[in-house]
Structure formats: C-alpha cells, structure tokens
Amino acid sequence: MHLQNKLFPTQEKNLFYIIVFALLAVLYAPVIFHWVDGWLEKN
Predict the structure, then answer these.
(1) DSSP the chain
(2) Is the pTM of this model over 0.90?
(3) pLDDT per residue over 5-40, tens digit each?
(4) 41: exposed, middle or buried (Cβ count in 10 Å: 0-12, 13-18, 19+)
C-alpha cells in the first residue's frame, strides 16, 4: 500500500501538466492560426 501511495502523486502531477498544456493549446490555437494566416496573406 505504501508503494502505491508513492507512485500516484507523480502520475497525478503528470496528468495535471498534460491537462494544463492541452487547455492552453486549445485556447491559443485559434490566436496562433489567425496570426499565421494573416502573416502568410501579408506576404
């Protein structure tokens, strides 16, 4: 039981970072796409 409790915080921390990264990617994807599209149309 002690070994399981030692492993889970690392997995939960990794899951937390993955969720935060995915959320930021979803939020910033339209902004980055709009910027790149405008930059390509300018040239």
Answers:
(1) -HHHHHHHHHHHHHHHHHHHHHHHHHHHHHHHHHHHHHHHHH-
(2) no
(3) 565 567 788 899 999 999 999 999 999 999 999 999
(4) exposed
> Cα-Cα-Cα-Cα dihedral of 38, 30, 32, 13, to 10°?
180
What's the confidence (pLDDT) of residue 9?
66
**Half-sphere CA count of 36, side-chain side, radius 13 A:** 6
Instruction: For residue 24, give Cα distances in angstroms to 6, 13, 30, 36.
Output: 29, 17, 11, 18
